[in-house]
Amino acid sequence: MALVALLVLAASLAWPASSQRLPVLVPVTKDPATSLYTLPFHNGANLVVDIAGPLVWSTCQPGHLPAKFPCTFPTCRLANAYPVPGCHEPGCEQERRKDGTCTAYTYNPVTGVCASGSLDRTRFVANTTDGSNPVSQVNVMAVAACAPETLLASLPRGSTGVAGLAGSGLALPAQVASAQKVANKFLLCLPRGGDGVAIFGGGPLHIHSQSEVDWTQSLDYTPLVQRNGNPAYSVLVKSITMDNTRVSVPDSALATGGVLLSTTVPYTSLRRDVYRPFVDAFAKAVVAQSQHGWPVARVVKPVAPFELCYDSGTLISGRGGYFVPGVTLTLDGGKNWTMFGGGSMLNVEPGTACLAFVEMKGVKAGDGRAPAVLIGGFQMENFLLEFDMEKNQLGFFRLPFYAPCGQ
Ligand SMILES: *[C@@H]1O[C@H](CO)[C@@H](O)[C@H](O)[C@H]1NC(C)=O
Ligand SMILES: *[C@@H]1O[C@H](CO)[C@@H](O)[C@H](O)[C@H]1NC(C)=O
């Protein structure tokens, strides 16, 4: 009896039950050269954050453990569940490897190039967190695909692959969730400078300067929807307003395609049928501000890829960015995602600030196969986002300027 009690005590000391279920935090940084975001994966290997990516892939440097997954294994099926459109590499389906082991498709989200590679196991090293501080280091054995070195083109210097964070079975959140017994959801705060965070398993999230506040309590939610069976994250937008004026896009324009989120495009792009009225409405709303006693913002020659630029000396600026009309996306469920100057205007060169939205390329107006709005990294920075695959919802909250994302 006493021995059993002692063993139970010893076990509970060695493995405190609570720490087994703590969320797992990794810092996220922005690469200034590419505007992509990376996270440390293990031993100094950094992977690019791709919230639309269904897999984890890398160049399989030391640390990878070759694993023999036959083509018929469920893990291999998961790895092949989201074929890359237009990728003609041989896979398990068409052309099996001689030894019958699994082939997965790796995809560079920036160049659009794909390759096929074996499926391996690798270690993801990170810390659990209590929401304020690291608690203990964890090693998560993760399944990752191996890609050739050439697939790294256009990715940040020093990165060795891509961490897919989409809602698929072999994306990093699902793998951490099953290994660490945490919820299949993650918090993401992309930094403009300094450190951001990704927290697998969810909140709380305290930020040191305001440590009594758990920012996840401030999240607003909207349902996540799947588009064409794709594991990337999409939401529905009901209307777009500039300050209090509704942008005149037909409801059907917003309904076709919805809003897709991407960490691998730098700026939000809008399909042509949404872009034109959007830019015109912004320009008008800026003029309307001057009719309400604000200084007249002077339009200057645009700097590509942007179309609407201002002499920044004629804009009023504060710590949260320029005081320009707020851009509000009213999402399904009625909650508003509002971008103020800090999320809508970019200083492109000294004296010039541009509306940081671009027109979607290669897509026709109204083409429902493309999203109406593709939210890019810049517009998500300093927002706390929660991607919850269990409740199928996206949480979002704009952090105040005094509370940037890092811990
Ligand atoms: C884990 O936390 C320790 C202590 O704060 C830190 O030195 C280390 O870099 C962290 N590891 C990772 C992978 O973030
Ligand atoms: C969202 O924004 C619209 C347009 O500005 C406004 O009419 C509506 O009241 C807002 N809803 C909430 C919940 O704040």
Q: What tags apply to this protein structure?
A:
alpha+beta, Cathepsin D, subunit A, domain 1, Peptidase A1 domain-containing protein, TAXi_N, 37% strand, aspartic-type endopeptidase activity, 16% helix, Xylanase_inhibitor_I-like, globular, 7-stranded mixed beta barrel, single chain, binds 2-acetamido-2-deoxy-beta-D-glucopyranose, 2 domains, 407 residues, disordered N terminus
The CATH level-2 architecture of the largest domain is identified as Beta Barrel
C-alpha Rg, in Å? Answer: 23 Å
- Here the CATH topology of the largest domain equals Cathepsin D, subunit A, domain 1
Oligomeric composition of the shown chains: single chain
Helicity range: 10-25%
Query: Whole-Å distance between the termini?
Result: 45 Å
pLDDT average, as an integer?
89
Number of domain modules: 2
- Kindly name the structural category: alpha+beta
Q: What is the CATH C-level name of the largest domain? A: Mainly Beta
For the largest sheet, list the strands in their spatial order.
Answer: 1-2-3-9-4-8-7
Give the tally of β-strands. 30
Characterize the biggest β-sheet: 7 strands, mixed, barrel
Number of helical elements:
8
Query: What is the molecular shape?
Result: globular
Beta-strand content estimate: 35-45%
Ligands, ions, cofactors: 2-acetamido-2-deoxy-beta-D-glucopyranose
Q: What's the CATH H-level superfamily name of the largest domain?
A: Acid Proteases
Low-confidence stretches: 1-19
GO biological process, one term: proteolysis
Family: Belongs to the peptidase A1 family.
GO molecular function, one term: aspartic-type endopeptidase activity
Protein name: Peptidase A1 domain-containing protein
